[in-house]
Design brief:
6 strands; alpha+beta; 6-stranded antiparallel β-sheet; lipid biosynthesis; about 45% strand; about 20% helix; lipid metabolism
Length: about 140
């Protein structure tokens, strides 16, 4: 419930189930339990379900946005956070039903309403995706 207070995303686009290891203003780990009934698996791909890489990056952004709101407090709850850049995105292995995606985000810098993060997504301690990205909080 705290994630839904922090960010405005809702099903089917809320890609976080839980937050852990929150170090305010610095880093956090978001958890996404990937299940076979995810709406994107109907078309990506029915015979071999694979979580789209862009949604893994989106899960990184949602983890970072939740960290930002938890850091800045109630005045920022529910505000929109827009991507500004995504750089050096790499996808190492497919993510599918039954995987637990652990999304590690670490703040690289923050200036006013613009924050820059490094994200690494893992399944069973194996890196499946990584990227650097920046986002802006919008009123």
């Amino acid at each position: 419930m705290q994630i839904m207070k922090a960010i405005p995303h809702r099903y089917p686009f809320l890609l976080l189930d839980k937050m852990e290891d929150i170090e305010a203003g610095e880093s956090a780990v978001g958890i996404k339990n990937v299940t076979v009934n995810e709406p994107f698996f109907q078309g990506h791909f029915p015979a071999r379900p694979v979580m789209p890489g862009v949604l893994i990056i989106e899960a990184m952004a949602q983890t970072a946005a939740t960290l930002v709101v938890l850091t800045l407090g109630k005045a920022f709850e529910g505000k929109l956070v827009y991507f500004m850049t995504v750089e050096n995105a790499k996808f190492r292995r497919p993510v599918g039903p039954g995987d637990q995606l652990r999304i590690h985000v670490k703040k690289e810098r923050a200036r006013g309403t613009v924050w820059r993060f490094r994200g690494v997504a893992k399944v069973d301690d194996v890196v499946v995706a990584e990227a650097s990205f920046s986002a802006m909080i919008v009123d």
